[in-house]
Design brief:
Blueprint: H1 24-29, H2 87-102, H3 106-117
Length: about 130
C-alpha cells in the first residue's frame, strides 16, 4: 500500500502579464520610429574652387588703390530687425525648443530659438 507519490503533481499555473501604461511622451509621439527614415550615410568628396570677382556692375564706383576691382570681400550683413519678445513668446519658444529636441526636429528647435529672440518675423507683414 503506497503512502506517498513519487512524482510531483503538475498544476497548470495561470500567469497574468501586466504591461505598464505608455508614458505621456509615448502617447503623444506615437510608436518608436526605426532608423529607416534616415538616409544611409554616404561619403562624398566635394571639391571647391576659389573665384575672385573683378569688375561688375559697380566697378567704376569703388575708391582706393585697387583701380575699380573688388577682391571678393563681402560687406557686413544688414541689421536684423527684432521685435520685443514678450514673456509668453519666451516661454512658448522654450517649449518649441524642447519639443524639437525631444522629437529630433532641428527646424522646430530653430523656430523656438527665433521666437525666444524675437527674430521669427511675427508682426512684420503689415499692409498699410
Amino acid at each position: 500500500m503506497p503512502l506517498g507519490r513519487r512524482t510531483a503533481r503538475t498544476v497548470p499555473a495561470t500567469t497574468r502579464t501586466t504591461r505598464a501604461r505608455p508614458s505621456l511622451k509615448t502617447r503623444l509621439l506615437g510608436p518608436k520610429r526605426t532608423a529607416a527614415r534616415r538616409a544611409p550615410a554616404t561619403t562624398t568628396t566635394t571639391t571647391t574652387r576659389t573665384t575672385q570677382t573683378t569688375g561688375g556692375h559697380h566697378a567704376g564706383h569703388t575708391t582706393g588703390h585697387t583701380g575699380g576691382h573688388t577682391t571678393g570681400h563681402t560687406a557686413a550683413p544688414a541689421h536684423h530687425h527684432k521685435r520685443h519678445a514678450s514673456m509668453g513668446d519666451k516661454v512658448s519658444g522654450a517649449m518649441m525648443k524642447l519639443r524639437g529636441s525631444i522629437t529630433h526636429r532641428p527646424g522646430l528647435k530653430a523656430a523656438g530659438t527665433r521666437r525666444m529672440h524675437g527674430t521669427d518675423g511675427r508682426g512684420s507683414h503689415h499692409v498699410y
